UniProtKB/TrEMBL annotation:
Cofactor field: [4Fe-4S] cluster; Mo-bis(molybdopterin guanine dinucleotide)
Protein name: Assimilatory nitrate reductase (NADH) alpha subunit apoprotein
Keyword flag Acetylation: no
Record EC number: 1.7.1.1
Length: 881
């Protein structure tokens, strides 16, 4: 049995995984017990990795305007189009838009080609939407983009503050580490700050459900309170920091006392007091922050407001303490190391600094260095819209879905002269808009490194052959660089060579001036590179990593001192109005990843949250005439989406939450990016994805239905979702206007061309009730059920299970259109445990009938929660209910 040691391609936790192939060629994925990030754990997404490696819709060959071409022709065409635009309009008329899901080696080459050879800094990345506020906050406070902490600090802490982080769902393995730490150390306290009550709050001793966007007030209040109550670390502040007095004055101005903070944040004064007391009286505090802080028009200030509190209390650089930005994507951190953002250079050097530009230029021997920062993501797509940027190459990201004001982004791509997209999937909303499509390798095939949230560099190694003509991103970039005439400077034959160059640049003329230094690896042999153990940068001369930064009280600013930043809190730019009375918050669900290109093809992962939804307070739903399970229209001046209604008291009144995941490939109109205004932080350029304002109203559906098919079909109706089931796709459909002819409608949806003789149907035109099934040979190929009332449609489970069978028995065939078997089986309800496929109803029943008291009891009885543990918070909620 062959085992490959590699790294999970999903989130920034960066868990080590072992991939095994058995004698029948079947792959299985297990956690790597030796990897310091996960120490033998994996979440539901990592556990299901083997299910998503065989993608049914791969982009396998280069295409120009839909025609398959050779690699030579594709690379030459990209080079020619880019070159002719550059010759006529200058280098700033072209751009790359890349991703924290590229490997460091790919990222390095993309950045080098654009900034050092094309001579523009118009390369930006989806990290702009993700980490750029944290990057800017780190740079302002520490002089360099540095995350001081280690994962072990979570275990050593006595207080963990989670701000704007739903770690239970988004960093599940770190959440499990915190759960375990709390179990072994009952003195460990957890505070969760989030307008929503998420699963993460289940771990918290205190949940502060503050008014959306008011975090800077809270942390300014804390700063002021720490100073007034004798919690300043005077020695550290005097020796190792600057700017405390001004920051304190600003804090006092905006958040003078607990009452004011409570009022502005809409919190109970006693809760604010409790948080301040906890922070003040606990020595070892880690403050974890994520998108609830970053994705804001004042995200950089919010980051600094919380870093200020760690500086004032001296809680940084020591075990169990520090501000800790959890990164989102698997290589968000690696992208920052190579300078993938438009306002960075490479190796943590500054593009605005002429000496740094000169240093990199000499190292690269580049003919034409970018002279200033390039366009940040939102501005970049606006420049494409206005025609200033005429060619764009998108790699490993889906901007037509994930950028704010996504309709305008689509208009921009439609107008753009030359859209090149490198992706591994043939159909995404962005790939569909490309003139030139370049097939990329993906996880399991590609080779290189990633860096996780605590600066640990880990290897990704291939265990699958390249499918079709797909190539790794650095190879594609190298070939285009060669076709542009830069072959001498891009001689790479392997990821290993690129990595060594990256390591060499990190130490070039460094001598301790830059923290990011992995120079000890510049001579790594290919075998050493392949066997590289997970290591935290920076490295010492012997290649030993660094667990924690700033232990010596030295920072990377000009003065060597950390900087306090004065923060004047600003509220989100969209303000509730009579027309748009709700704040729209967006984010993630447990088992889906971004725009569903990977998790959307896994039945197991699709079962947990299968449809796009809005979560809202039940009283708001009642007031707006909305019903649980009904469909809502959410709209503002930018657009409209239609999603399912879920009511929950975890949502504060006046706020809505919609997941970011659904694209046009999986839904009729549920892409929430349509509703997010292109409002950004003035420093970081990060969009405010958490605070749009909208109105919500019922969508009046006059018909409902579902269809199940072996092939992926086009959806139909004003509302639809495509959900992967084993051996089939299930579609939920609703529309405002019933079809005039349902049999014709059905044939249009289910048949490739014309009719099909092997077809059974039932039709009651007066009641708009229609049911049909289509067979190919003995197999059920597809079925469709339509009714005027959703409640009259049968349960889907039995029908879905028929697609897993080889054939259909006469009894099954005769009960097919009834939608249920003659003898009813058990309905297990919504999937809670994705590993063992255990449903909510089964769990509730077992709790009630067998008197289960703990999550361990549930595990013993049903296995639920005993593998990856991602569902443990939900099991605890079911027990509490
Ligand atoms: N399952 C899953 N995991 C993922 C991903 C995924 O797609 N799916 N993506 C990865 C990526 S790229 C990222 S960036 C991370 C993101 O990880 P997180 O940042 O943890 O996730 P989000 O759901 O985007 O947002 C976090 C929380 O911010 C809260 N929030 C909204 N407004 C405010 C506010 O004003 N103040 C505060 N304090 N909180 C607020 C939201 O209610 C939400 O619960 O997840 C990573 N992990
Ligand atoms: N409303 C709202 N919008 C958001 C957010 C939010 O919270 N709310 N979060 C933002 C954040 S934090 C992020 S990180 C973004 C994420 O948003 P995106 O980056 O747009 O989302 P993904 O679906 O991860 O897109 C990755 C693409 O890369 C492809 N791919 C996978 N592997 C490879 C490879 O090796 N090479 C190449 N070339 N392609 C590959 C996949 O098929 C997929 O099409 O969304 C942002 N947008
Ligand atoms: S926490 Fe889950 S998704 Fe994130 S790296 Fe680990 S296994 Fe992968
Ligand atoms: Mo992200």
């Amino acid at each position: 049995m062959h085992v490959t040691k590699t790294t999970c391609p999903y989130c920034g936790v960066g868990c080590g995984v072992l991939v095994q192939q058995d004698d029948n060629g079947i792959f299985s994925v297990k956690p790597d017990k030796e990897h310091p990030a996960n120490l033998g754990r994996l979440c539901s997404k990592g556990t299901a990795l083997a299910e998503t490696i065989d993608h049914p819709d791969r982009l396998l060959y280069p295409e120009i305007n839909g025609q398959q071409v050779s690699w030579d022709e594709a690379a030459q065409t990209v080079a020619n189009r880019f070159r002719s635009i550059i010759e006529e309009h200058g280098p700033d008329a072209v751009a790359f838009y890349v991703s924290g899901q590229l490997l460091t080696e790919d990222y390095y080459v993309a950045n080098k080609l654009m900034k050092g050879f094309i001579g523009s800094a118009n390369i930006d990345t989806n990290s702009r939407l993700c980490m750029s506020s944290a990057v800017a906050a780190h740079k302002r406070a520490f002089g360099e983009d540095l995350v001081p902490c280690s994962y072990e600090d979570l275990e050593q802490a006595e207080l963990i503050v989670l701000v704007g982080s739903n770690a239970a769902w988004c960093h599940p393995v770190l959440y499990q580490r915190m759960v375990k730490a709390k179990k072994y150390n009952p003195l460990l306290k957890v505070v969760n700050i989030d307008p929503r009550r998420t699963q993460t709050a289940d771990l918290a001793d205190l949940h502060l459900g503050l008014a959306p966007g008011t975090d800077a007030v809270l942390f300014n209040g804390l700063l002021n309170w720490l100073a007034e109550n004798g919690y300043s670390a005077d020695g550290f502040v005097a020796q190792s920091t600057q700017g405390a007095a001004n920051a304190l004055a600003a804090a006092k101005q905006s958040a003078p006392d607990i009452q004011t903070v409570a009022k502005l944040c809409n919190l109970a004064a006693e809760d604010v007091n409790r948080f301040f007391q906890l922070f003040g009286s606990t020595k070892k505090v880690v403050t974890v922050f994520s998108q609830g802080i970053n994705q804001s028009s004042s995200g950089v200030d919010k980051g600094n407001a919380l870093i200020n509190c760690h500086l004032l209390s001296g809680r940084i650089g020591k075990p169990g303490m520090g501000p800790f930005s959890f990164t989102g994507q698997p290589n968000a951190m690696g992208g920052r190391e190579v300078g993938g953002l438009a306002n960075q250079l490479a190796a943590h050097l500054d593009i605005d600094n002429p000496q740094h530009r000169d240093l990199v230029q000499r190292f690269w021997q580049s003919p034409r260095m970018a002279a200033q920062a390039g366009l940040k993501a939102v501005d970049l797509f606006e420049a494409i819209h206005t025609g200033k940027v005429k060619a764009v190459w998108v790699m490993a990201t889906n901007p037509a879905v994930s950028l704010p004001d996504s309709s305008r982004v689509r208009e921009a791509l439609e107008k753009c002269e030359c859209v090149v997209v490198s992706d591994c999937v043939r159909h995404t909303d962005t790939v569909d808009m490309a003139h030139i499509r370049l097939p990329a390798l993906t996880w399991g095939e590609r080779n290189g490194t990633v860096t996780n949230s605590d600066r640990t560099i880990s290897r990704q190694l291939p265990f699958l052959p390249a499918p079709g003509a797909a190539r790794q991103d650095w190879e594609i970039l190298r070939d285009v660089a060669h076709a542009m005439g830069f072959s001498t400077y891009f001689p790479y034959q392997s990821a290993h060579e690129i990595f060594r160059e990256h390591a060499a640049l990190s130490t070039f003329e460094n001598s301790g001036s830059r923290c990011f230094d992995i120079g000890a690896w510049q001579q790594l042999s290919a075998a050493e590179y392949d066997a590289l153990p997970p290591t935290q940068w920076p490295l010492d001369a012997d290649g030993k990593g660094t667990q924690r930064l700033f232990a010596d009280g030295r920072f990377f600013t000009a003065s060597g001192k950390a900087q306090f930043i004065s923060v004047e809190p600003r509220l989100p730019q969209s303000v509730r109005s009579a027309g748009y009375p709700f704040v729209l918050n967006t984010g993630r669900v447990r088992d889906h990843w971004h725009t569903l290109t990977r998790t959307g093809i896994s039945p197991r992962l699709s079962a947990h949250s299968s449809e796009p939804y809005v979560e809202m307070h039940p009283c708001d739903a009642r007031d707006q005439g909305l019903q649980e399970g009904g469909i809502a229209r959410i709209h503002n001046a930018l657009g409209e989406i239609r999603v399912r209604v879920k009511t929950s008291r975890n949502q504060q009144r006046g706020s809505l939450f919609v997941p970011m995941h659904w694209s046009d490939q999986f839904s009729a109109s549920a892409g929430v990016g349509q509703l997010i205004p292109a409002v950004t932080d003035p420093i970081s350029g990060q969009p405010e994805a958490k605070h749009a304002t909208v109105a919500i109203a019922p969508f009046t559906a006059r018909w409902h239905g579902f269809m199940i098919s072996r092939r992926k079909l086009k959806g139909e109706g004003d509302y639809f979702t495509a959900i992967k089931a084993p051996q089939a796709w299930r579609y939920e459909l609703s529309g405002s206007e019933p079809a005039t002819n349902w049999p014709q409608f059905a044939r249009g949806l289910l048949c490739e061309s014309g009719g099909d003789p092997n077809w059974i149907e039932y039709h009651d035109p007066a009641r708009h009730t229609y049911r049909a099934a289509r067979f190919v040979g003995e197999q059920l190929e597809s079925c469709l059920f339509i009714s005027t009332s959703a409640g009259l449609l049968p349960e889907r489970e039995w029908l879905v299970s028929l697609f897993e069978q080889e054939g259909i028995s006469p009894a099954e065939r005769s009960s097919l259109l009834a939608g249920k078997p003659l003898v009813a089986g058990e309905d297990k309800g919504r999937t809670i445990c994705a590993c063992f496929n255990v449903g909510e109803k089964t769990i509730r029943k077992a709790i009630a009938e067998q008197g289960l008291k703990t999550v361990e009891d549930i595990g013993g009885c049903l296995q639920a929660g005993t593998n990856c543990g991602s569902c443990l918070p939900e099991l605890a909620t079911l027990l509490a209910k």
